[in-house]
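Hey L., structure's done. Input below.
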Amino acid sequence: METFDIEEGDDVVLTFLGDTLLEVFEHEDEDMFDPVEMFVKKGEEIEGVVFSVDEKNFGLQFDDGSVTFIHKGFIDKFTLL
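Output:
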């Protein structure tokens, strides 16, 4: 797995390796709300602020406050803003 030098609080643009279905939550507590599905096509970019990073996943918050959790294996590249 590629190493990503991303930290909590970073503004990023993520590009996807393939078509990906993300679950987007209204809040970072994923048990509180039902997710909305967001389809991202191969090569498509999404922008947000990283709010959590672990060995396998990123937590990404969008401008509207909603969040998603993305497996690092789905990411082709990232750009820090």
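Strands lie at 11-16, 20-25, 36-40, 45-53, 57-61, 67-71, 75-80. The chain is about 0% helix and 50% strand.

-- N.
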